[in-house]
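Dataset card, provenance and construction

Sequences and ligand SMILES were collected as paired inputs. For each pair, a complete structure of the chain with the small molecule in place was predicted and serialized as structure tokens. The example below shows a pair involving adenosine-5'-triphosphate. Curators did not alter the output after generation; any descriptive sentences attached to a record were derived from the structure itself.
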Amino acid sequence: MAAPAATPPPLLEVEGVVVRFGGVVALAGVSFEVGHREIRGLIGPNGSGKTTLFNCISGLCRPAAGEIRFEGVALSRVPRHARARLGIGRTFQHTALFRSLTVRENVLAGAHPLAGSGFLANALRLGGRVRREEREAEETARRLLALLSLEAVADAPVGRLPFGTQKRVELARALAAGPKLLLLDEPAGGLNHEEVYRLARLLFRIRREFELSILLVEHHMHLVTSVSDRVVALDFGEKIADGTPEAVRAEPAVIRAYLGEGAAAHGDAA
Ligand SMILES: Nc1ncnc2c1ncn2[C@@H]1O[C@H](COP(=O)(O)OP(=O)(O)OP(=O)(O)O)[C@@H](O)[C@H]1O
């Protein structure tokens, strides 16, 4: 009889991660998982450790203890620059774009073939392959500009665009690199009600079309609870809840963290 097939590991496993900044414990042994094609919300009041956790996953911050695994690979062994190639993409709370370049150039930078081919190979003999990858990158950029409704501003310098549009450019740039996991840091920041609604539909579409998972840091509670399959909540660097959006919203520790002592008896979080 054939042995049962081994279950593949979750896409991302965060295990006992600890980060300290001097006397401040930013993460106090946090553990959770992100499944394949899952939209996972990450919530918590200001200073609860969400950005620090993103920084540990993307390699900007090194945990003092614990481990993070991506498709079973321990990230402590993977340098920061190699994590994008593994399939980890990210957007930032305050965007990190090339402001003087156009929207199209920024998106192309995310998909640039030299990232895959290597400068030396390009210089020596792989000209044909690089040209093909260049064409593919342009096609990817064209598709992403259409998906994110950026065609009309494709040739405008990013720095002159409204913040909400810049956030879409950053999302397009992150997608251009073909991530398996997308870390989104407050994508709804500065968006109006109608734009938040469109963002929710866009996140579902991105998951479906790119077959990826999303870890979403967001203060906009309605967005998080309407798009996430599961939500993890932090407070002062500790995990205080992990489960369905409904269960996490109703969790007394979450209500206390958002609304203060005494609130838990009265209702759910925001
Ligand atoms: N580079 C740093 N040096 C010192 N302390 C830091 C540093 N980065 C974060 N902290 C502290 O670590 C804790 C967690 O901060 P973090 O930015 O991860 O929280 P957050 O949940 O992302 O907050 P916000 O919702 O306001 O973005 C806070 O107490 C913060 O002051």
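Derived descriptions for this record:
Residues 113-118 have pLDDT under 50 and may be disordered.
The two ends are 54 Å apart (CA to CA).
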